[in-house]
């Protein structure tokens, strides 16, 4: 039986309509949610993602600005910019696009963002609160992944979820949020021996390794929910996931495409966080 394809674009559309009406309501109270994205350097992929974020903001009525800086910017200058945005009452969300040039410390930059404005959910205060289960701005990709699985109606409780990838921006937060849903979670990474041994046991398989087409039908348990987070540009110029879509769609129960799967959900969760940050800051 062929998988149901989970179109992030469609799921995101419903959520964005809801977000647009929340923005309307805030605007009636005189609050215009605002997101500032800092983009350092010329990486074309980063520029493309940031454009997607700005488009999303426009769609739901969030004011957004992109501050472009040359790759030669110093860490000190970047920290100074963040300090000003921390103090600016019209800015509710601050996002510094990663990766940064190697002469700038990601740790210093993320740590400098006021945690209430950290709409990526990458600040140690938000990460810690998420882990403990307290209120926090949640990391967008991980949150988007869990919302997509929820949308399938498949209960996560008691299911074996296998996550490939342990990065701070995707793999680790996905694993925490799935545990919050009472899944049993196994983490795999580049040093995992016999990866297939684990992936074949997964009721829910999250693939976030950044390796084009690494997962095929032999790696997947029949009927599994498969979420492909990978976004890879291959030689032909095509954008592909970490999963061999045409194969895996024949064995999975649900499968996300790339593009049009997790990516649009990531952006939608960023919009949601920006609105939440605006509400929280206004209530202080
Ligand atoms: N759709 C979206 O919204 C988003 C998509 N992405 C995409 O998701 C992918 C992952 O991103 P990110 O987490 O930042 O990437 P990182 O490179 O930071 O992390 C990759 C992780 O995958 C593991 N890994 C790499 N190769 C293998 C392998 N052959 N077998 C098993 N594990 C492996 C690494 O292991 P180790 O720790 O041992 O090195 C690491 O933990 C990328 O394609 C990225 O473009 C990212 C963010 C958002
Ligand atoms: N501070 C920070 N926050 C991030 O959230 C962040 C980051 N840095 N650095 C890079 C990764 C990557 N990422 C993506 C978001 C959306 C798509 C997305 O919407 N992709 C579209 C296709 C986009 C295209 O066509 O290029 C899709 O999958 O349909 C992809 C990747 C966010 N990241
Ligand atoms: Mg990374």
UniProtKB/TrEMBL annotation:
Transmembrane segments: none annotated. Residues 6-120 form the Tetrahydrofolate dehydrogenase/cyclohydrolase catalytic domain. It holds the Pfam family THF_DHG_CYH_C. Its EC number is 1.5.1.5, 3.5.4.9. Keywords: Amino-acid biosynthesis, Histidine biosynthesis, Hydrolase, Methionine biosynthesis, Multifunctional enzyme, NADP, One-carbon metabolism, Oxidoreductase, Purine biosynthesis. Belongs to the tetrahydrofolate dehydrogenase/cyclohydrolase family. Catalyzes the oxidation of 5,10-methylenetetrahydrofolate to 5,10-methenyltetrahydrofolate and then the hydrolysis of 5,10-methenyltetrahydrofolate to 10-formyltetrahydrofolate. This is Bifunctional protein FolD. It comes from Brevibacillus composti. The lineage of its organism: Bacteria, Bacillati, Bacillota, Bacilli, Bacillales. The gene is folD.
